[in-house]
């Protein structure tokens, strides 16, 4: 493509809310064969709500919620915000916590009123030897519906399972259909559990799901896609995924994301609209086809 055609195309893309930060990204994007998406905050709204609480026998539901919220008030994770919001909406005061520690991609823990409290993914609690079988059937049912189950442990005992749901963005299905129509293959990379991730991927027609990926593993997930199937564009909101944005051949940040995402990205989608990803690919291919 000539410098002029690149300038014209990046200008037209900008009018559609697609910012190419460098001209050469237009060229690289035209050769991409795979699109990988972060789930939370990219394909979904990133604002989950709490939908269910199942407590172990003898555990009071409000007490479980208070302990969970006390830990989560120190966390910035979207699941944490869902739990704190629900607790406050029930008019329950959240006590302070101490010794807070985030377990990236797994959960969080802290001391609350003299009790040791942990909340997180099944694998995080199972690694501490907690027995989650009382919640297994219900958790599986909720995950198959696309909810994310997390578990609460109090003083080394499994106390509750809490499920959150994060609505799929209204434009996500159309964005993925438009990409599929352009012949690229689609993948999802997420820290969420496999059953939930597959339920959401099925609704969106994404064939390849990489689930339970730790934040530190997202870069490697991109590398493995590149090795198997050629150049990759990764679309993410930057929470946990700045390294994946950099590792991809083209990193595409959704504009509602963090500043660090925008710095790591080659392309920025304003208004956080995933349809921009399909527009970006179409524009890049049209530009490269028009070499004069
Ligand atoms: P994503 O790829 O969706 O950004 P993360 O890597 O942030 O996922 O988290 C992966 C999983 O770890 C979550 O689905 C949840 O089970 C668990 N998790 C992480 N942080 C928390 C937290 N603060 N509270 C509860 N669960 C958490
Ligand atoms: Mg995300």
Automatic annotation (TrEMBL):
Intracellular or extracellular location(s): Cell membrane; Endomembrane system
Coiled-coil ranges from the UniProt annotation: none
Domain of life: Bacteria
Family the entry assigns: Belongs to the cation transport ATPase (P-type) (TC 3.A.3) family. Type IB subfamily.
Name this polypeptide is given: Copper-translocating P-type ATPase
């Amino acid at each position: 493509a000539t410098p002029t055609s690149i300038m014209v195309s990046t200008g037209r893309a900008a009018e559609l809310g697609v910012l190419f930060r460098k001209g050469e990204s237009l060229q690289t994007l035209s050769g991409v064969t795979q699109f990988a998406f972060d789930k939370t905050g990219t394909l979904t709204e990133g604002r989950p709500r709490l939908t269910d609480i199942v407590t172990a026998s003898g555990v009071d539901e409000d007490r479980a919620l208070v302990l969970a919220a006390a830990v989560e008030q120190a966390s910035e994770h979207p699941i944490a915000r869902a739990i704190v919001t629900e607790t406050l909406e029930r008019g329950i005061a959240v006590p302070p916590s101490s010794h807070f520690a985030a377990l990236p991609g797994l959960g969080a823990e802290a001391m609350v009123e003299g009790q040791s409290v942990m909340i997180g993914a099944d694998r995080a609690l199972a690694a501490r030897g907690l027995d989650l079988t009382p919640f297994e059937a219900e958790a599986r049912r909720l995950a198959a519906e696309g909810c994310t189950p997390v578990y609460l442990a109090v003083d080394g005992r499994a106390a509750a399972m809490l499920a959150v749901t994060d609505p799929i963005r209204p434009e996500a299905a159309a964005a993925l259909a438009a990409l599929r129509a352009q012949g690229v293959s689609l993948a999802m990379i997420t820290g969420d559990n496999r059953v939930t991730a597959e339920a959401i991927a099925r609704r969106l027609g994404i064939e390849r799901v990489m689930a339970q990926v730790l934040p530190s593993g997202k870069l490697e997930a991109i590398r493995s896609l590149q090795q198997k199937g050629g150049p990759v564009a990764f679309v993410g909101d930057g929470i946990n995924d700045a390294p994946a944005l950099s590792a991809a051949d083209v990193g595409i940040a959704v504009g509602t994301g963090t500043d660090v995402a925008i710095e790591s990205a080659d392309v920025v989608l304003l208004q956080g609209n995933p349809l921009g990803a399909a527009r970006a690919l179409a524009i890049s291919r049209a530009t490269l086809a028009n070499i004069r």
